[in-house]
Specification:
This protein has five helices and eight strands, in the order ββαααβββαβαββ. By secondary structure, it is α+β, with helices and mostly antiparallel strands. It has a single domain, classed as Aminopeptidase (3-Layer(aba) Sandwich). An eight-stranded mixed β-sheet has the order 1-2-3-4-5-6-8-7, covered by helices on one side. The longest helix is centred in the C-terminal third of the chain and has 16 residues, at 118-133. The model has no long low-confidence stretch (mean pLDDT 92).
Amino acid sequence: MIPLITQTPRLTILAASRALLTAELHKPHYFPVLLGAALPTDWPPGEYDRAAAEFFLDKLTEGGRDAAGWYGWYALRKAEGDTPRTLVGHAGFMGPPDATGTAEIGYSIAADWRRQGLGTELVAGLVAHAADTGMVRRLVAYTDADNPGSQELLRRNGFEPAGSADDGRLRFERAVEPAAK
C-alpha cells in the first residue's frame, strides 16, 4: 500500500481523497474542517483549478484504492507559534507511472506563501514519496518558459531541462532511485 501522507521539515503533505475533493468542490465550508487547516485567501492557487480538482476526483473514483496517492496532494504548513496549520499549496502526480516507470508531477503554491522555499520542499517531498513507492524510475515536470522561479525550483530538486512540449512549456526530468529499505 502506498503511504498517503508524507512529512518534510515544514510541511505535512496529504494525499487527496474523494472526501476531501468532494468537500473542496461542492461543500467548500467543510473543506478546511476536514483538512484541519486554515485556507489561504487565494485558494485554489495557480494551475490547480476546479478542472484539476474534478480530474483528480474522477481518477480517484475510477481507480478506487489503487489510485490513492497517484493524483492530488495537499501541502499543509505545520503550525508554528501563532500561525495555525495552513493549506499552502497543491501538487500531485498525473497518475501512476507508465510501463517505463515514468510519472509526471505538477505543483502550485498559494501567492501568500511563495518565495519561502515551500514549493521546493513540496516537490522534494513528492520526489521522496515517488522513491518510496519503488515504482517510479523517472519524474517529468512541465513549466512555462516565462516562469524562472518554477524552473529554479525544479533544478533545486535535481530536475534537468529536457526540451519542450508541443504547447511551448519547458520539460524537465530527473531520475528517481528507489528508497533504501
